[in-house]
Amino acid sequence: MAHFARIDSGIVREVIVVSNDDAPDPYPESEPLGQAYIADTLKLEGVWLQTSYHGTFRGRYAGIGYTYDPTLDEFVAPPQPKPEPEPEP
What gap in Å lies between CA 78 and CA 49, rounded to an integer? Predict the structure, then answer.
């Protein structure tokens, strides 16, 4: 299966799965095939970039709310909130 992330204003808004029949080649050759399938068959608009479930390309798997850095060609996780300090006993 191939996974594609919809990018809007640099932020991942949605992630979908595309069958290997519709994006059969390994990345990066599979990306334009999957993008064509998403646009022509699924009729979904927007910018769709392939993401690796195993993190083998583009840094990591794209999650909703992640950002896409085009300079690095990577998905970047949102910053994690700092844990609250434990109260003194």
Answer: 18
